Amino acid sequence: KLIPDDGWPDHALELFLSWLACHDTNNRVDTMTIGAGEREGRVVCPLIRKLHCSLTHGIGRSGNIADIQPKALGSSMLACLANEFALHAIREIGVTSCKAALVVPICTGMALSLCMGSWRRQRPEAKYVVWLRVDQKSCFKSIFHAGFEPIIVDPVRDGDALVTDIETVNRILEQRAKQILCVLSTTSCFAPRSPDSLEAISGICQLYEVPHVVNNAYGLQSEECVRRLVAGRAAGRIDAFVQSLDKNFQVPVGGAIIGAFKQSTIKTIAQFYPGRASCVPSRDLVLTLLHQGRRGLLQSYDTQK
Questions:
Q1: What is the pTM of this model?
Q2: Whose CB among 118, 191, 249, 303 lies 3.0–4.6 Å from 272's, allowing a Cys bridge?
């Protein structure tokens, strides 16, 4: 369940992937595949089968992306490894108090939306999300996609930087806490906007018992963003933080990691995901981390810094 210290050679990665694929029912040689169901891993184009290494079942079951699929034990093992590797990587990078991680085959904005949607039942009166403005469309649109309206809090000027307007956030939550689904803050952003003050926001969210989700899109590669996540958790409430796979782990676009400081939070989010999912982002993350190894991952982050 841990990333190996040293990376694997390419032939070992290929053998490992082939071994996993052999555990999916459509690839087994000791049984005859009837193919009567709607999810039998059928692929008509040989090139597509080759591109996916015969892992064509996907991951999860109808009601939970984290459930084991009996027809696809190899793909399910791959998904479990991806979640465990993601958690190990997050801890190694510096967020040591992270308790669970979920790899999802959607990008950062959609992953934020998934988090917000999963909290709807917990807060039936909520209609709004307090959004600490950052001029990036994805996180803004994620609020509408989840079915909520944004309450926009503009940053305030502090010298040459734009920083979090803590007083306004506190006033909104004090007056309308029950109507607020969550606060959506951001760590990774472009100057002159500074990363949000997660310590102050987390304290306010804990005081008024309002969930707090952090858009940490490419923040794992930043010591400052990691420091703010850790400090925010220590100071108060951070329910989930979302980061992109491609920006932080150099894999193709298409996946994100949802991290949380409680396992129950990840369980709720996983159960909210409708239907099954592609295993491609999970596969790419596992292969990349096996290729790099723990030392290689940390060395690449040191080089980037």
A1: 0.93
A2: 118
